[in-house]
Amino acid sequence: MSFPDDCRVLSIQSSVVSGYVGNKSATFPLQILGFDVSTVNSVQFSNHTGYKVFKGQVLNADDMSCLYEGLKLNKIHHFTHLLTGYIGSKSFLEKVGEIVKDLRKQNPNLTYVCDPVMGDNGKMYVPQELLEVYQKVMIPIADIITPNQFEAELLTEMKIGTESDAWKAMQILHDMGPKTVVISSSDLGSEGTIVALASSIKNGCKEQYRINMPYIPQVFVGTGDLFAACLLAWIQKDKNLKVALEKTVSIVQAVIQRTVGHALSLAGTGNKPTPEQMELRLIQSKADIEDPKILFDAVPV
Asked: Is the entire prediction scored with pTM above 0.85?
């Protein structure tokens, strides 16, 4: 196994003061897996938007430009990886596209992992105008993308009703640019399961995997951000898509199971857990993140 002695990640996504979503969900796993992480918070809120109230600030394109300029003027914009997640404005996303290209001048081998956070369960929670920026600017320059099923449908403009549809959509996404495409969650499995699908093209050869996970009827926030961060880390460390997918899914499931157990014990029998009780038990899952027990097999397709 190769260890990331000098891997530096620039992570651009949302952040919260309390709880675990966006950069708060991605930074801790990356750091304990040996990565140096620098963060830009596209938004900074008091808590995630699933609570009754949230307050905070939204960065605009000029803010992003200003922060990046500071890094550049000090010549501290050397990164091996870029990770992007929730970005809420078109101009900000376009600015990040420019920064990716500029970072590649500094390091042509930069790995860009793009989690195109746009929505879930058939609903978009970013402005519609971001979709075109993802399609035309971000996806073509990404190395690895981690959409959920709904985001893959948006990006490819095709309905995914079967696993066969999913593989076709993933090929469309490959044709747009990324060498590795992972649908982080889908409802394409049998009842009671969620399916993740991964496809990678290297030197003209394609490898594809399916991995099943149990469906847990609770609302989780921050799991997609955790998934993308862990996938980045394990692909870098193991250089093996199958193993990286297995470790990533096993970590996310371990965190989810610990979170649900804790939330239900706090809520009491018959009560629905509150958003606060359902915050990811990320810190308590440190051992699972560092040395995941593989409980889910990625099956070659």
From this structure: yes
